[in-house]
Design goal:
This protein is mainly β and about 475 residues long. The radius of gyration is 21 Å and the shape is globular. It contains four helices and 30 strands. The strands form six sheets. The chain has a six-stranded mixed sheet, with no helix packed on it. Strands 1, 2, 3, 5 and 7 form a five-stranded mixed sheet that branches. The chain has helices spanning about 5-15, 135-140, 180-185, 450-455, and strands at about 30, 35-45, 50-55, 65-70, 75-80, 85-90, 115-120, 125-130, 145-150, 160-170, 195, 205-210, 210-220, 225-230, 235-240, 245, 260, 265-270, 280-285, 290-300, 330-335, 355-360, 375, 380-390, 395-400, 405-410, 420-425, 430-435, 440-445, 455-460. The model is unreliable at about 10-20 (pLDDT under 50). Bound molecules: CU-O-CU linkage and copper (II) ion (CU) (2 copies).
Length: about 475
């Protein structure tokens, strides 16, 4: 699409809003969350201020954005940086024009410009947001936030805790070092040097003794696949990548059998705090050479005596079930293709390498016109996407705008819960099934951002 056409679309959007009044059809006031993308600094390491960060505040992490299922939302994103940006709402099944993918769904937001995102989230659950232009640098410098879409009626928790897991690449003085390396981009990605939760070393919080806590965990790192488990509490995984689980996901309690949460993924966990005041529940991560505390929740006050069985089941989201009687199969090969031209991402940044490909063709770049879709799906059709990993690295494969079920693998027993991001193992062939029920051009890429930005990207068209 040309800039001209984008302007037309966004002007039409603005006219619908009726100027400052911002009333949707039916006179409902939308939930409004203005975001200002800007330079920031913050004490990521004790006693040190990290300069050169990117956030939506000058001195704090991007906020947890709270929306309501089925309620209109307006999110004006102002760009106060000296470079371009665009905001993507990961996991949300919203109209294509609001998806935030530069050149594919909108023109990138220039310095000083504002783009008003308007949508009504159809699904409740835990989602997140991040830029899709200058993705590598802006994400690595801080711009990743959690989005909570609340159910009309909650299942009966006493409290909630939101965890944004991500790393930073800092030196001993707390200042950024190279955000990525060619070596990392060509392999599993470049890991951060400092692990963080909500921009701190460990998230510590008090929750009622014997109470029920809803823990929302989002892995927003550009690279790290988290290996998580719990200590000190009974719990239950109630939602996976936003959606209530249809098939049980084992609650992990041992570093030897951790749960993998890869970049882009989320989980909602029901935790029952200990009955004894002062005891801790811990979210732990297995890391090279040991384990690490991510969150420590301390029981305080008198015993509320709650029981996990008291929670009402989460209401299902309105997802279409793929018809698997005779679905068409579309194949995708994820591989290493170190030759090829550098991607042309226009205003949206390049890493300076090409390493990866889908179907043996590295993504030509966001700004290249006339690059066709990887596949064309008919609106309403059920289809199986066969994802074949020909590389020795792991790839969390993410599809925008649609939700899919992993249904079989040549390597493991899959848990077929609805998702938007599936971890593809080394040499794995994973079949995922979906209904193509949202029209538009949907980005399809690895969520290891170095892989995405060096070729492992493309889009799927639904018409
Ligand atoms: Cu979470 Cu295309 O990204
Ligand atoms: Cu996404
Ligand atoms: Cu990858």
């Amino acid at each position: 699409m040309k800039r001209r056409d984008f302007l037309k679309t966004s002007l039409a959007g603005a006219a619908l809003m009726g100027g400052g009044g911002a009333l949707f059809a039916g006179g409902v006031s939308p939930i409004m969350h203005p975001l200002k993308v800007q330079p920031a600094k913050y004490g990521l390491m004790p006693g040190k201020i990290t300069e050169g960060m990117v956030s939506t505040f000058s001195d704090a992490p991007p906020p947890v954005l709270r929306l309501k299922q089925g309620a209109p939302a307006v999110l004006p994103v102002e760009n106060a940086m000296e470079e371009y940006t665009a905001m993507h709402w990961h996991g949300l099944r919203i109209p294509n024009a609001m998806d935030g993918v530069p050149y594919l769904t909108q023109f990138p937001i220039g310095p000083g410009e504002t783009f008003q995102y308007e949508f009504t989230p159809p699904d409740a659950g835990t989602y997140w947001y991040h830029p899709h232009c200058m993705t590598m640098t802006q994400m690595a410098l801080g711009l990743t936030g959690v989005m909570v879409v609340e159910e009309a009626e909650g299942p009966g928790f006493d409290s909630e805790e939101v965890l944004n897991l991500r790393d930073f690449r800092l030196n001993d003085d707390g200042q950024f070092i190279d955000l990525y390396t060619g070596r990392g981009a060509a392999r599993g990605g470049t890991h951060g040097t400092v692990m963080a939760v909500n921009w701190q070393d460990v998230q510590r919080a008090d929750h009622g003794t014997g109470s029920l806590v809803r823990l929302r965990v989002a892995a927003t790192d550009t690279t790290r696949i988290y290996k998580l488990y719990f200590e000190g509490a009974d719990g239950k995984i109630i939602a996976w990548d936003g959606h209530p689980v249809d098939y049980p996901v084992p609650y992990p309690t041992s570093p030897d059998a951790p749960l993998l949460l890869s970049p882009g993924q989320r989980m909602d966990v029901a935790l029952r705090m200990p009955s004894t005041e002062g005891q801790d529940v811990k979210l732990m991560a297995r890391v090279p050479g040991g384990t690490r505390e991510m969150a420590v929740l301390r029981a305080t006050g008198t015993d509320a005596g709650r029981d996990l069985a008291e929670l009402a089941p989460l209401p299902r989201n309105p997802l279409a079930e793929p018809d698997l009687t005779s679905p068409r199969v579309e194949e995708f090969i994820f591989g290493w293709s170190p030759e090829g031209d550098l991607p042309n991402n226009g205003f949206c940044g390049t890493l300076g390498y090409t390493f990866w490909s889908i179907n043996r063709t590295p993504w030509a770049g966001d700004a290249v016109e006339g690059v066709g879709p990887l596949a064309t799906l008919k609106l309403g059709e059920s289809v199986v996407l066969r994802l074949r990993n020909e590389s020795p690295n792991l790839h969390p494969i993410h599809l925008h705008g649609l939700t899919f079920r992993p249904i079989r693998s040549n390597k493991r027993e899959v848990i077929p819960n609805m998702t938007d991001t599936a971890l593809l193992l080394k040499d794995e062939v994973l079949d995922i099934a979906l209904v193509a029920d949202n029209p538009g051009n949907w980005a399809f890429h690895c969520h290891v951002i170095e892989h995405q930005k060096t070729g492992l990207a493309g889009y799927i068209e639904v018409v």
